[in-house]
Amino acid sequence: MNFLIYDIVLLVSFVVFTVIFLYKRRTNLKRDGLLFLYKTKVGMRIINNIGKKYKKTLNLLSYVSVILGFMLMFGGIYIFGKTLWVYIFEKEIVSLLKVPPIMPLLPYLPQVFKIAYLPSFYFIYWIVILAIVAVTHEFSHGIFAINKKVKVKSTGFGFFPFFFPVFLAAFVELDEKKMEKKKIFSQMAVLSAGTFANVLVAIISFVLLFAFFSLSFSPSGVIFDSYTYSLVGVSAITSLNGQSVGNLTYSQIMNLTIPEEINNISTEKASYLAQKESLASQEDNAELGFLILYNDAPAIRANLSNTIVKINGVTITSKEKLGEELARFSPGDSVIITMLEDDAFRDYEIQLGKDPDTNKTYLGIGFLQKESSGILGKIVQYFSSFKKEEIYYIPKFQAAEFIYYLLWWLVMINFSVALVNMLPVGIFDGGRFFYLAMLAITKSEKKSKKIFSIITYLFLAAVFVMMVFWAISLF
Questions:
Q1: Which uninterrupted H or E stretch holds 250?
Q2: Secondary structure class of 344 (helix, strand, coil)
Q3: Are 38 and 155 in contact (CB under 8 A)?
Q4: Cβ atoms within 10 A of the Cβ of 81, count?
Q5: What is the secondary structure of 158-202 as a DSSP string?
Q6: Of 150, 106, 132, which is closest to residue 200 (Cα–Cα)?
Q7: pLDDT at position 34, please?
Q8: β-bridge mates for residue 229, sequence order
């Protein structure tokens, strides 16, 4: 909470500083559509020196940039199409989404909308990452432009005038007349250079993220999210809460079970446990002749939940380590299990059971196979794949989590910007890139402009459709 206060103070200070800065230098401020552009010559020397000094390297990288541009365009179209499909045909997922499909990633957005699969996004993250993304993107445009002998007139920053002036993006102003006279490939190399830089920064950031995580966090527990369970035939149930029964129907089972308590259900071979709330969602299963019931195990009996940190003082660092420690004991032995609950440690004395299938020592916890829903969820899962979901990690120093998530967001945002910016839509670099590709194929400006116009309107229509279906899901 203290950090959040400091972060908000930093945001307010930044806004005040920006207002004063822009007011004092208002002669350099020009209106361009919805943006105010602040033009400078900052970075011009760097852009010119790199663009002229490394000609051979940049000529080679031009091919990489253009090929990558096409790959990102196809990837962006695919993800856009999958997202459109989800909004139209998968209403259950859409109803869970708390933000509209078109929404800029602003500070505190995951916190405000309580998006569980995204970490907190602070203002300091936002301003640092935005600066890195925008500067590398635009400088790359400028460097490749100089390499292709297109003059860079100025550099600068863009600001939104709404609510409060906030740094939105960097830009390089090119000599558009010279740019249009260049060969198609040269123009495409300049246009795709920004996303090439974003991908490069994303790759470097991911390597740093992996290395930093490996050095700064240690596995210190195992996170479980279920108990072991079995499929039990309804006709096989012989006892319910100590009462002998036979030939039960689903409605009779629901009448005999007690709400908000663990109910004992037995067959001739084994005992099981279930809550009435979980049985209430199994009517379809009952019609097929079975129910999903928890095995009668020590973990559920003791109401263990979430994270096992130690067994008899031995730190549990993996599922394998958990299995090894349990194997040292026999069924019926008592052990002290240390759990992490609400950021505090609590010890439980547990009498271990016997696995009904293997007769080995048995605790009775389970691990569900987690699949992230939606395109964004899968991307988030991919970029966190080295951090195992079932492992609880402890940072080795206080600022470790802050740095880790800064790098994580840097990877995510660079990758996202690269994909979105290469969509074949007029407002992005991908729009002009797509037009040039059509021009190379058709050899006709008229046909190329028509195809480009149709594609742009199709994308805008698709965005409108997604917004409509998202709005409908709110009611």
A1: helix 250-256
A2: strand
A3: no
A4: 12
A5: EEE-SSS-EEEEEEEEE-HHHHHHS-HHHHHHHHHHHHHHHHHHH
A6: 132
A7: 63
A8: 294
**Residue type (1 letter), 301:** R
Q: What is the pLDDT of residues 416-475, one digit of tens each?
A: 999 999 999 988 899 999 999 999 999 999 999 999 999 999 999 999 999 998 888 877
Contact 401, 217 (CB under 8 A): no
What's the pTM? 0.83
- 131 band by pLDDT with thresholds 50, 70 and 90: confident
Query: And the tokens for 227?
Result: 């108990």
Place of tokens 């979901």: 389
List the structure tokens of 212: 């930093």
Angle, CA of 129, 132 and 136, to the nearest 5°: 150
* Cα of 440 vs its chain's centroid, Å: 37
Residue 164 has pLDDT above 50, yes or no: no
Task: Choose from 97-101, 196-200, 330-334, 342-346 the range with maximum mean pLDDT.
Answer: 196-200
Cα–Cα separations (whole angstroms), residue 297 to 78, 264, 302, 350:
46, 12, 9, 11
297-363 maps to which CATH number? 2.30.42.10
Neighbour count for residue 80 (Cβ, 10 Å): 20
Q: CB-based contacts of 46: which residues, under 8 Å, 6+ apart?
A: 139
pLDDT of 40 higher than 90: no
CA–CA distance, 77 with 215 (Å, rounded to integer): 37
Looking at residue 258, the DSSP 8-state letter turns out to be P
In angstroms, rounded to a whole number, what is the distance separating the alpha carbons of residues 289 and 231? 10
Quote the pLDDT of residue 217.
94
**Residue 362 in this model has a pLDDT that exceeds 50:** yes
- Which value, to the nearest 10 degrees, does the dihedral of the CA atoms of residues 443, 445, 446, 451 take? 80
Residues of each domain in the chain carrying CATH 2.30.42.10: 297-363
Type of residue numbered 249: T
Cβ atoms of 36 and 161 closer than 8 Å:
yes
Token pair 């208002």: residue: 26
Question: How much is the pLDDT for 162?
Answer: 54
The 10 Å Cβ neighbour count of residue 358 is 8
| Interatomic CA distance for residues 404 and 216, integer angstroms | 9
Q: What is the DSSP letter of 342?
A: T
pLDDT at 101: 79
Contact (CB, 8 A) for 115 and 459: no
